Amino acid sequence: WGQYDKALIHYQRALRIKQEAGIKDNSAELNNIANIYEQKGIYDKALEYYKQALNIAEEANAFSNYGTMIINIMRVNAILMDVDEFLIYVDKYLQLDNQAVQITNHVQFNIEAGSMYRVYEIYETALEFYNTALELSNTHNYRQSAKEALNGIGITYMDMDEYGKAIPYLLDAVDILEDLRKTASGNTRRDYVSAQFSVYEHLYRSYSKIKDFKNVYNTVELSRAKLFSERLAGIDSLVVIPDLSTVQSALSSNQAII
Fold it and tell me: Is 211 helix (H, G, I), strand (E, B) or coil?
């Protein structure tokens, strides 16, 4: 977990072995290298390798992971705020034969598209994509992606200043993360805990905006209790939970948490 440099060395070695053996389809290795660069935040290199992987998959007629590769490029373009190229790959994805693409690809495509439209403040379109992702996730019991869609819908409503609408979606996202956390261990459990606290932050900000200060307090205390229980269980965490002074700083001068 987090050993990106070591992983990069191994993936580059695997790529070199395939190239020296004359194996043309090395798209998986290129995709893995791209993912490491993305995790390290080196997005231009990630995009370079993702595109190489996609091109080689096309040449080799290896379409089993084709949808995933397009989505990877979409995601990095969204991070880089390159809307023109993002839309090119949205169109490329939409031209795929539905039967050749996994349902999980459709879910992730809608989440990535929703995120991009939210960033560009095209909120109604963002909500359409997120809700499609949520419907597919619920139909196929994809809990992780359901959480992502719920969180996306919640944040979109927050961006629209409709905090009351955001809260139920954020609460549902927290519930899913709690279920996932209970059955996970090690680094995966830590990731779920971290994601929970991120949603808690959205919740206490939403509650504060609608002046529901009782639930601001309850949310902060719940998140602190969760972190304490994880530490008692021996789960190391670098997550920082906001204390009441931090919450107070987000309020106006004539508001206070008692």
Answer: coil
In contact, 132 and 124? CB cutoff 8 Å = no
Local confidence band at 63 (pLDDT 50, 70, 90 cut-offs): low
Structure tokens at 198: 């991120």
Task: Determine the Cα–Cα distance for residues 160 and 163; give it in Å rounded to an integer.
Answer: 8
The token pair at 67 is: 């949808």
Tokens of 100: 């050749």
Burial of 8 per CB tally in 10 Å (0-12, 13-18, 19+): middle
Q: Which two tokens stand for residue 166?
A: 């955001």
Do residues 88 and 110 touch, judged by C-beta distance below 8 A? no
| pTM summary value | 0.79
Query: Which residue blocks in the chain are alpha helix, DSSP H?
Result: 4-20, 27-39, 43-59, 66-79, 83-94, 103-119, 123-139, 143-159, 163-183, 186-209, 213-232, 244-249
Mean pLDDT is lowest, of 41-45, 139-143, 195-199, for: 195-199
